[in-house]
Amino acid sequence: MASTADFKNGMCIHFKTGLYTIVQFQHVKPGKGPAFVRTKLRNVKTGKIIDNTFTAGLKIDVARIERRPYQFLYKDDMGYNLMHTETYEQIALEEELFNAPDLLKEGDHVEAVIHADTETPLYVELPAHVVMEVTYTEPGLRGDTSSTNSLKAATIETGATIMVPLFINTGDVIKVDTRNKEYVERVKQ
């Protein structure tokens, strides 16, 4: 058991009927009345963020979670097969646990967040950015920049489609943000 004085960003707690991570918190001591802690909590399963206020000193139940390094091997009818990079143990996880499964290619390293008490996988995070090759995109036409943010669709090596600037061509290598599936920059080879 811990109290609201132990709050840290990223801490995982049991709240209401599920697991929540603390995104942001602020201790408030008003002139009148008792102190309280204002928080933003993210539901681990759904990703939904809620606001909640705790009275100062309230006891909370902290959930023990572990981040474990895995390597993506392949996808089959059992799900996404991962191998622990230190123990070489293999597990198969369903697609719903991944934040961007369409940006995952064989050999990529990911981080699985596991509830340590029950050994249940909660979610899997890809690295913040991945490097991909553009397998198909329409050629950009010269003078076709009516606005500064002109974008076109491009298919990358995993089959996902993302929006890229007009100067990107088939065969270019680009960096993609896995959190919002957006183009970041062209990678020099």
Automatic annotation (TrEMBL):
Ranges for domain Elongation factor P C-terminal: 130-186
UniProt GO molecular function: translation elongation factor activity
Protein biosynthesis is among the record's keywords: yes
Pfam families, per database record: EFP, EFP_N, Elong-fact-P_C
Alphabetical list of PROSITE patterns matching this protein: EFP
Record GO cellular component, one term: cytosol
InterPro entries, alphabetized: Elong-fact-P_C, NA-bd_OB-fold, Rib_uL2_dom2, Transl_elong_fac_P/YeiP, Transl_elong_KOW-like, Transl_elong_P/YeiP_cen, Transl_elong_P/YeiP_CS, Transl_elongation_fac_P
Gene3D superfamilies, alphabetized: 2.30.30.30, Nucleic acid-binding proteins
GO BP field: peptide biosynthetic process
Domain spans labelled Translation elongation factor P/YeiP central: 67-122
Localization annotation: Cytoplasm
Keyword Protein biosynthesis: yes
Family of this protein: Belongs to the elongation factor P family.
HAMAP family: EF_P (MF_00141)
Function: Involved in peptide bond synthesis. Stimulates efficient translation and peptide-bond synthesis on native or reconstituted 70S ribosomes in vitro. Probably functions indirectly by altering the affinity of the ribosome for aminoacyl-tRNA, thus increasing their reactivity as acceptors for peptidyl transferase.
Protein name (record): Elongation factor P
